[in-house]
Amino acid sequence: MANTTAAVNGTAVPAPASNPLVREVSGPITVKVVNKAGAEVGTVTIDPAEFGGTINRQLLHDVVLMYRANARAGTHSTLRRGQVAGSTKKLFRQKGTGNARAGTKRTNKRRGGGTAKGPKPRDYGYEIPKKAVRAATRMAILSKFADGECVVVDDFGLTAPKTKEMAGVLKAIKVGTKVVKTVENNVESSVEKDVTLLDTTVLIGTDKMDPNVYKSGRNIEGVRVLPAAEFNAFVVLKQKRLVLTKAALESLRAKK
Questions:
Q1: What Å distances lie between residue 52 and 58, 135, 145, CA to CA?
Q2: Where in the chain is the domain with CATH 3.40.1370.10?
Q3: With contact defined as beta carbons under 8 Å apart, do 156 and 245 qualify?
Q4: Could you report the per-residue pLDDT of 163-211, keeping only the tens digit for each?
């Protein structure tokens, strides 16, 4: 890319370099729509501008860090030298014993003594402006679209909570392939296998709280089910794949 310059008070000033932490997403994004059998039944086109059009890695990092800090219990506690059991009497006289000088047995240098500057219960929580948090959520969702890590499901079709049925739907939806190496009779061979949603971590987004989908997916390892209104940057980025119902996608599009 050519380096453009601008004149300021008659002096040429180089244009600022692009920020490597900011990714611009332009052009329509096509996401496939599948049914519960894993067959593609259509596509949906997404305009990146609906989700901000940019992905700021620094903002995503800051917001995820905030969520992780707010989840800390902060209940750690150690005993200082004034809180452990034991006398404060000097162990032996200062001189004449041949030993190194010593004071109380509560010192942190002795076994059973207190901890020097150890942690005490504290609150690690802090807040980032709400506009920045909402922008980070949109960026996280946009990153899933842009990286091809999102699938739209036409309809789960669950009339009752059935973990087996949900596992079958996830297993039917293929998201890629992987090469598996096998050794038989001292001969190494490579076999290409399909990767399904059941082989990875998945965030399933519904329009509203759907008890059948939630109860069917909550016992599957690596699967989390949430209404689209409860999405945040951390839960979207934590799971490797994003699965949305059509209604959930429209709900996210309408949310600003």
A1: 15, 7, 13
A2: 20-72+128-254
A3: yes
A4: 999 999 999 999 888 888 887 777 888 888 888 999 999 999 999 999 9
**Secondary structure (3-state) at 77:** coil
Q: Which CATH superfamily is domain 20-72+128-254 in?
A: Ribosomal protein L4/L1 (3.40.1370.10)
Beta-carbon contacts of 242 under 8 Å, excluding residues fewer than 6 positions away, are 141, 144, 149, 150, 151, 202, 203, 205, 236
The CA-atom distances, in angstroms, between 153 and each of 30, 86, 170 are: 14, 66, 10
218, two tokens: 């909550």
Q: What is the pLDDT of residues 109-121, one digit of tens each?
A: 999 999 999 999 9
- 137-247-221 Cα angle (round to 5): 65
Which string of DSSP letters, residue by residue, matches 218-248? TTSTTEEEEEGGG--HHHHHHSSEEEEEHHH
70 by DSSP, 3-state: which? Answer: helix
Q: What is the pTM of this model?
A: 0.82
Which residues, in sequence order, are CB contacts of 106 under 8 Å at separation 6+? 81, 82, 84, 86, 88, 113, 114
Q: Taking phi first (over 0 means left), then psi (-120 to 50 degrees means alpha), and beta for anything else, what does residue 231 get?
A: beta
Rounded distance between C-alpha atoms, residue 224 and residue 239, angstroms: 8
194 neighbors 101 (Cβ within 8 angstroms): no
